Amino acid sequence: MAVNPIKSKLKEGKCVYGSWIRIPSPIIVEALGNVGFDFLHVDMEHSSIDLQMLDYLVLAGYRYNIPLAVRTATQNPADLYRIMDIGYSSFVLPRIESAEQCAHLLKGARYTPAGTRGLGGAVRANGWGEMPLEQHLTEAEDDTLMIIQIESEEGLKNLDAILDVPGIDVVYIGPLDLSQALGYPGQIDHPVVADTIASLIKTIRAKGIAVGIHAATTLQAQAWAEAGIQYFTVALDVSLLQSAGRTVVGQLKNKQ
Predict the structure, then answer these.
(1) Which CATH number fits the domain that encloses residue 246?
(2) In which element (H, E) is residue 69 found?
(3) Does the pLDDT at position 2 exceed 90?
(4) Residues paired with 19 in a beta bridge
(5) What is the tens place of the pLDDT at every residue in 142-198?
(6) Sorting pLDDT into bands at 50, 70 and 90, what band is 254?
(7) Rounded Cα–Cα distance for residues 57 and 21 (Å)
(8) Which of 41, 46, 104, 214 is catalytic?
(9) pTM of the full predicted structure?
(10) What percent of the chain has pLDDT above 90?
(11) Strand 231-236 with 68-71, pairing
C-alpha cells in the first residue's frame, strides 16, 4: 500500500476534487470512480448507507483505484477502526467543536502509541492476516487521512486549540452549516459568511494544514482555489443524476 495519494498531492500544493456518495450502491462508486475524480466521500451522516454497504462500496473503490473517505455519523472512536478494518483509511469527521473531542476521535484511527485503534487480527486492511504486522502498522499510518469539519459557532470559537491537535490533514469547511451558525442560513455569499471563510483559510493554512470545502459550482471551486483552498467536493451523486436527467428532459421537451 503506497502513501495516500491525496496526502501526497496536498503536500505538493495541488488541488484535489471529489464528490459525495449518498446512494447505497457500489455501482455509483464504480460509475463516478471512473470519470476522473481524485476521491469520493461516502456519506453515512446524511444517507441510509450502513456498515454492510460500506463493505461493498470499498470493493467498488478498489475496482477503479479511487480513494474513498467515509463521513461518520457517530462520535465513537471504535467505529473508526471498525471501518478501517474493512479497508478504508480516510475519514471526514463532522461537528468538531473542541480540541478534546477532536483528539479523542483521531486517536481511534491510529495504532499505539499515537492512538487507540485495536488490532483486529485477520482483516481486509492487513490482507486477511497475510501482511506482516510491522508492515501493516507502518502502512496504516502512511495511508491514513483525517479530515475534520468546522461548521458551528463552538467550532469557530475553539479553532486555534483544535488546530493544535496532532494528526489533522484537512480542515473541511461546511459552508451551509457555517452560514447557519453565523445567522445567515444558506447565504454562502453573505459578506459575514464570506469573510469568515476567508479568515478560516488564513488561520488554517498558517498552521500548515490543508483547507477543504464543498463548492456548489465549478466556478465557486475555482474562486476558492485562488483563495488558497486545495481540497474540494463538488455536487453529489443524487444532484448529478438529477442534473443529467433535467438536461435530457429539457432538450426533448423544447423540441416539441
Answers:
(1) 3.20.20.60
(2) strand 68-71
(3) no
(4) 40
(5) 899 999 999 999 999 999 999 999 999 999 998 999 999 999 999 999 999 999 999
(6) confident
(7) 10
(8) 46
(9) 0.94
(10) 92
(11) unpaired
**Number of other residues whose CB lies within 10 A of the CB of residue 200:** 20
Q: Is 206 exposed, middle or buried (0-12, 13-18, 19+ CB in 10 A)?
A: exposed
Element spanning 92, H or E: strand 90-93
Burial of 55 (0-12, 13-18, 19+ CB in 10 A): middle
Q: How confident is the model at residue 120 (pLDDT cuts 50, 70, 90)?
A: confident
Which 3 state secondary structure label does DSSP give 76? coil
Beta bridge partners of 39: 18
> Read out DSSP for 165-223?
STT--EEEE-HHHHHHHTT-TT-TTSHHHHHHHHHHHHHHHHTT-EEEEEESSHHHHHH
**Residue 233 bridge partners (DSSP):** 18, 214
> Per-residue pLDDT tens for 34-44?
999 999 999 99
Closest CA to 69 of 119, 7, 124, 14: 7
Q: Which amino acid is at 150?
A: I
Range of the domain at 202: 5-254
Which residue is associated with the grid cell 482555489?
225
Q: Does 46 qualify as catalytic in the annotation?
A: yes
Domain count, the chain: 1
